[in-house]
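Onboarding guide, step 5: your first structure request.
Type a short instruction followed by the sequence, for example:

Predict the 3D structure of this protein.
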Amino acid sequence: MIKRDRYINELIGFKDKQLIKVITGIRRGGKSTLLNIFQTYLLKNNVNPNQIITINFENPDFEELQDYKNLYKYIENRLTKDKKNYVFLDEIQNVTDYQKAVDGLYIKENVDIYITGSNAYFLSGELATLLSGRYIEIKILPLSFQEYLSAFSEQSDLPTRYKNYLVNSSFPYTIELDSKQIGIYLDGIYNTVILKDVVARKNISDVAVLESVVKYMFDNIGNITSIKKISDSLTSAGRKVSNHTVENYISALLDSFILYKASRYDIKGKQYLKTNEKYYAVDVGLRYFLLGTKKTDMGRILENIVYLELIRRGYDVYVGKVGILEVDFVALKDGNVEYYQVAQTVQHEDTLRRELESLNNIKDHNPKYLLTLDNEPASSHNGIKQIYALDWLVQS
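The system replies with structure tokens like these:
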């Protein structure tokens, strides 16, 4: 079992706090395993097994609990009096009006609640209203490169591991599978997400158009895009689709965590922009599965990996605009700002000059980084730190 210390430490930090712990992320991204690891931690720290109540709502054994009243009664009857009870509700979006049961348990002083969901929309609407200010969200992604490396006992060079990480996927269970099995497994994840989390929720009848949108978005990771551009491109390819439909589909893909969006930020004007966002895939292996590995732009692949890693490290990430130039990422956390430019290689002088230009046009003194796949010692260009991206990815 791969240790996921960043998430576990966050759960430990919020243990026994009067807050509902909400863990969100794509299906098979490791949410259930994270709960298991945390429960093991509890058992090793003087919590008795009868103080832990855990329910996975994808298990048919608990189908009758998909009514909030039945769920509430089931848990209430199993609470240990005069002791703290730890309640884990996995994939709770399957429970009708689940927020009512959660709210009822939340007001009990001896209950500490942890819930997971595979759709962002389950945190909207009534839950946000009913439990406003009462929950914290922990956003979980598939394995980081560092976590992926920790799964292997034998030594191997970083470039080889990185290639395997990209092609074989960052979904945790793929480590147990061979290449043929990985393809079957990713196909299962893809179809489950598309059919359960997108098609069923949005009542989509033309699944082929939806899949065309998915493939277009995966093919254009790291490219500035717009709803109209997507619609026009699909229509010209023979898939006539309206702007409204594209917007609706992308919203559902974002909610299902198969896709992530980076909005734009005007660095000089210090304002958020509402157009021409970039999108990134939750897993590059899933992208390879859908599109193949030929003619792959490794710079954009690296950009996708860096974006996800910044999210894992707790940053709010935007695409930077400085005049007419673009900075790949503006990363904000705790009032601090960092700037990142990402490139496959800058060994050619003209390429290096081009990649540094936007960073050099930022006049503040916040940290600036150039991440590349050039395996060279770290260096500095007028205060801009150039770092080998694989070294950066394995930093804590």
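Each response can be followed by summary notes, for example: The longest strand covers residues 271-281.
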